[in-house]
């Protein structure tokens, strides 16, 4: 067994996930600076948890990283040649007005996966995320937790190198949160680089490899998780961790 | 009894009157074909205006919205001038044929389908935009997805278009000529019979027309409801 697994492990460790560099990035809206200017590099295997109070610019940072919006100044770049395959799971899952499985097949079709492979990949992903029973249910009548799992399954079938998650559990109950966190771990184990925002410190403790802490549009800290939770350096992060209300 | 419109309508239907049958079939053929052609052009046009930003886009939207109220006789006149012997398309020899009537109805229905689908697709795009960008979809690839996801709204829009086409009389009269057995449809027949003073027959035809339109709407509603329940 070991000898069989060894080359696989070796090759997967060779393929270290691409690093994401923010070079003096800022985003303004009508003369108001909403984020930055900030420079940092997301290296290592993560998962990176982007933390901070509401309005700190977490979602904005994620959208800039994913390329959904362009920075007003500076540059967002990847260490890899070309942009890595990436996917994003939103706070409110955006699902098409079709069945659960049709949502996955659509994502596969858009990514030019050959037609005959789509159905199998889609049903496999539904099974993995515990959605086999509602494969043919309209996606929009699924419960909030099921919808978010379907959004994760859609990301899964695209086998992204990088996965962005924007507060994926903020509208869910504890059981659904548990399922989403398990899914995030599964992505991480598959070697997908996770970048996720949350304002829930307990969730961050459970998942984080490293933490990027924002407040008022500024990056206050970027350290390994243990260091962040044990000895935060910035005043804002100290206050955030001790449960004070931070702006 | 013979002067009762309902009696006339019923006896027209029950006797399977061949000339009535011909008129009904032609009416349906012309209007349905016109709506199908208008949909094949109008829905992609509406979606394209919703998707792409280009100079003069606002103007296009205003013109499309305004053309929803295009008077049928004006559309008829334009098509008449185009297709008349001396007109640019005179060689086609379409004037006073069902083909000319279809063209006139397409001109009337297309702005309705394009303007209303533009509105609906734009609304849907607002909801889907970030997900589409995340999936790396081009605008051209977004179009079929948006049109399919707007299918229930588009069905209603299609019915609005069919309503305009089947109710229309001015344009088909001008370009079709109301020729018995060739271009006579329900609306033009009603006008003719009213003019001749044959009011029961005119009213009878009116009842048949109304019933047909109701049936088609009911059918479309049922199909829409059933698929909506199945696919959400």
User: What about the largest sheet of chain A?
Assistant: 6 strands, mixed
Can you tell me the overall shape of chain B? globular
Structural class of chain B: mainly alpha
CATH H-level name of chain A... which superfamily?
P-loop containing nucleotide triphosphate hydrolases
**Main interface: chain pair and counts:** A-B, 24 and 16 residues
Order of helices and strands of chain A: HEEEHEEHHHEHEHEEHH
Q: How many H/I helical runs of chain B? A: 10
CATH homologous superfamily (4th level) name of chain B: MetI-like
The first-level CATH class name of chain A: Alpha Beta
Largest sheet of chain B: none
Please tell me the overall pLDDT of chain A.
87
- Overall geometry of chain A comes to globular
Which regions of chain B are unreliable across 5 or more consecutive residues at pLDDT < 50?
A: none
Count of structural domains of chain B: 1
User: What's the order of the H and E elements of chain B?
Assistant: HHHHHHHHHH
> Structural class, from secondary structure content of chain A?
alpha/beta
CATH architecture of chain B: Orthogonal Bundle
